[in-house]
Design goal:
9 helices, 0% strand, 256 residues
Length: 256
């Protein structure tokens, strides 16, 4: 009788060990699968981003109305181009785990949320203000959609899947407002000197200083609003994730 109870205890112990091993293996496989999916999404993001940016660069050179040096400067004067470059760089840094000093900002807290906000601004401004003023064809149309529609949507999708608690610190996210502020100051200053403004809503020579400053303020306010929205949504998402991962917490909250 004693021997039987010992045998049962040993059998139960072995079953528990096997169960723990199976759960551990399952968890490991799930993590490996999730990692592979994330890397593939990052590679797809960087591929789309660099293709769009480089294609736009060659299209501008091919259809230039100014000298090559001036065309290059104008190319990098577009918020669309600079922001898509930053998003493509972010995907590149994450996909290949680049850790050089020059890439440290792409690993900083709030970076993913801030970049998502800026690429959303690219998409929103284009859809609401710029789409109706020209009709690109051929490769230009494809590149246009990549830069202004597909990549902003893709970045938002990636943000929703892989943003974490550290990406929802408003203080860290808002520090990135330095980027559009410096950009707008540069574009307006260079526009005054060269006469070239990348966007009609910044063209001081046609719409005047007051309207231009009003437009600049609207862009910055839009950036702040989008930051607040993403931080809010991100915190809600993170809270839901914690509830799902800790059912005891959900039970205690439900019973209180």
């Amino acid at each position: 009788m004693f021997s039987t109870s010992v045998t049962d205890s040993v059998s139960t112990g072995h079953s528990r060990v096997r169960g723990q091993r199976q759960r551990s293996l399952k968890t490991k496989l799930q993590r490996e699968t999730a990692y592979i999916v994330q890397k593939r999404l990052e590679i797809a993001g960087l591929s789309l981003g660099w293709f769009a940016v480089l294609s736009q660069f060659f299209l501008m050179l091919e259809n230039r109305v100014a000298s090559v040096p001036e065309t290059v400067i104008r190319f990098f004067s577009f918020f669309t181009i600079l922001t898509n470059i930053m998003v493509a760089l972010y995907f590149t840094v994450q996909a290949f785990k680049l850790s050089a000093r020059g890439f440290r900002h792409f690993h900083s807290k709030g970076a993913l949320t801030a970049l998502t906000v800026f690429i959303l601004i690219v998409g929103l401004v284009y859809q609401l203000v710029l789409r109706q003023i020209w009709e690109p064809e051929g490769l230009q149309r494809l590149v246009d959609e990549l830069l202004h529609t597909i990549l902003p949507s893709y970045a938002l999708f990636y943000w929703y899947l892989y943003s974490r608690k550290s990406d929802f610190q408003m203080k860290k996210v808002s520090a990135w407002l330095l980027y559009p502020t410096v950009y707008l100051a540069f574009v307006l200053l260079r526009g005054k000197l060269s006469g070239f403004y990348p966007y009609p809503f910044l063209k001081v020579s046609e719409i005047g200083v007051e309207q231009t400053l009003r437009n600049v303020l609207m862009v910055l306010v839009l950036a702040i609003v989008l930051m607040l929205v993403l931080v809010f949504v991100g915190r809600k998402k993170e809270a839901s994730r914690r509830d799902l991962s800790d059912p005891r917490e959900s039970v205690s909250l439900g019973g209180s």
